[in-house]
Amino acid sequence: MSLLPRTAEEFSSADYWDRFFRKRGEKAFEWYGDYNSLCGILHKYIKPRDKVLVVGCGNSELSEQLYDVGYRQLTNIDISETVVSHMNQRNTERRPDLTFQQVDATETGFENGSFQAALDKGTLDAMASEEEGALAGRMVAEVGRVLAVGGRYVCITLAQEHVIKLAVEHFAQGWAVRIHCLSGQQTEDSDSSFALPVFVLVCTKFRQAPPFAVLELCEGEDGAPSRLASVPDLLSAVKERQAYNLMLHKLRGGTDASLTPSLTLCHAATGRPRYTLTVQDSLPSAKLPRSNQFAIFIVPQGRESDWLYGSAEGRAQLASSAKFKRLVIVAMHRDQEYEDMQAVQSELSPMVMELAPPGMQANQQVPFLSVGGDLGWREVVGRGVSALTGEYSVEDVRGEDGHLYRRLVFMNNSQLVQSESRLQATATASANKKKNRKKSKASVSVAPAFKGAKTRSVDRGFLCCTHHEVMVAGLAMLGTEGFSNKDHPVSMLLVGLGGGGLPQFVHDFVPCAQIEVVELDSVVLEVAQTWFGFQTDERLKVILGDGLEHITMLESKGGHLFDVVMFDVDSKDTTLGMSCPPSTFVETLILKKIYNLLTPRGLFMLNLVCRDSSLRKSVLERVQAVFPCVFSRGIEGEVNEVLLCCRSAGDGQKPHTVPHTLQQTANDLQRTLCNKTQTAPCVPQIDITAMLNDLKVI
Question: Taxonomically, which superkingdom (predicted)?
């Protein structure tokens, strides 16, 4: 299977090209390659018997070299009288039939259809910057006029964005357009800070325009053509190749643990993403075995969003543990089939070797690492589209602990698991599994023994997210009477439903709890009910709408309505250093409204995910200005922290330590949850005391 690279690194055209043209000076043609580097592609499209128009020949030796290998019908034109005179004098004796003429390439005077090929080495690039591209436009139109049907315009170009766009848009109307990407041309005198792939644009003239655009991209001279659907798609593919070449150049220049470039390898035929590769170098101070230069780590399917693989900190830790100079971390994409580890290794080997660190011996063995030699397992069980958040996927995966988990992932941020629940076999599936246990033993690399989404149900007694466990444990701060008194049950408002695991847990295990959930997206509610076992009743209700508007409406009516208000909602604004909650949710006015909604014993719980230290400080200051007592519980290995904000400070004094009575109420809450097991559908699996152990006063 052929793979095409698509790097995530932006190719900054203006800045990069400005620096390039300043550096190259008068030595322009060296960047386009000489005859030895171009002969393969030229012989493929231009035959020795063809009448060839060489456009803007300059003083390049290319025509002379083509003449020497049998191309005798070359007509060389250039606008410079000096160049033409010099080239004619240089070739009078050795190449008497090789002529050079002073001709304007935009108005040649040659007859229509008089050439079988037109060869352009850098002329389009030079002319495209003149007259805002109008000069180059007239030139390609003239080339099209003098070429015969079936004739080819072969243009060697560095494919600056405005240059290639002009040419492709012109020839896409009625011509076949194919672009070859060749390796970057570097010589001993070339500036090492530039890594330019050379492109060969081949446009073939049709007698009659086809009913659809023929747009293709090829890797190297002989790569199989990949068909592109539109001109923007082709131009984007060219830009990706330029960015990929630039990334390779940086990687070959040395190792740098602070740079973690990534690229996506796409299926050449379909263009769909198949692998994402992230390069992670070890620190210069790391003590590594001399032979450990380079390795490839295959992330198990469905695990790419795990902290170890999906975060910069996790990947750095993985590389440190692997003890290789450079580690390439490979994630497999959903909706793709992978046979086994050997097949994946064979498919990746040609491409990943381009990412090897400098100085590695060519014949050195490169190990492929994985978790137990397993590709992992993933099954997409549902998908759909939300008007608010776009496409989503519901998928079952096998976790590191061997259990199956169901995840909700929005495709606009596919590295983030929106919601997660642990699965268990349904009663029917469990019975069938016991019957067949003696018949076969399933391998860990294949699908689970209980196959099909219908044979799996959500374990409602297990909370996958630690911050959800902390929020449940935080109920202990209400006091024993607060969560166990059936005459005065806990009243809770939760903004943000997700898969519904948190409110469902409280409903199932906290006696008589009254829960109101506000969710903005009706599709999220549908997903929670369809795939995550979420069930509403008179004690658990969902209101579809804006959480802040709902809070404002309730507060305007007056009265202390809730013992607990929880915020567990993510932000769609990726420009801020805070991904949870949206910044508007922690403005002082909203915090005061929440304070007013709480009962005297009330508690505000906030899942805070903030990487910006100054922004975090600002949020904490605002929270502390409203709530007299604030506790924080960090989540190990994650950025998350849960803030537990009390409406009352108890004796009126802000505590400096965690209340000594909390241990006892934690034990009481644990017993209360377990006592509810008799009527609940499953057993609660949570350690309340452990969740409160690292609580700190802010």
Answer: Eukaryota
